[in-house]
Design goal:
The protein has 114 residues and is mainly β. Helices cover 0% and strands 55% of the residues. The protein is globular, with a radius of gyration of 13 Å.
């Protein structure tokens, strides 16, 4: 299983980014997928998740600003980040637990300037 995240960058506060995570080596459509982030000096935290059926959950800190979606045909996971704030600066990771094993993407850096 391989997960490869991309789409990070530097944006000003109030801006938007769309992160993407390409999955390979797995039956993507049956997997619950998650996005995590790790801010400088902080522990990794769950941003949100999406089930195989498309149900989503979000951390309170991002509700109403971030949206998780998936494309099962192209085996891609997405994270739309809107109204970004400096406190959203972090490395963002895609994650799945598949066949009883945990898999992490390599992370993509999001930096928000004030």
């Amino acid at each position: 299983v391989q997960l490869q995240a991309s789409g990070g960058g530097l944006v000003q506060a109030g801006g938007s980014l769309r992160l993407s995570c390409a999955a390979a080596g797995m039956n993507f459509r049956i997997a619950t997928m998650e996005w995590y982030r790790r801010a400088p000096g902080e522990q990794r935290e769950l941003v949100g998740s999406i089930t195989s059926g498309g149900d989503t959950n979000y951390a309170d800190s991002v509700k109403g600003r971030f949206t998780i979606s998936r494309d099962n045909v192209y085996r891609r996971l997405y994270l739309q980040l809107n109204n970004l704030q400096p406190e959203d600066t972090a490395v963002y990771y895609c994650y799945t637990k598949y066949a009883s094993r945990q898999y992490w993407g390599q992370g993509t850096q999001v930096t928000v300037s004030s």
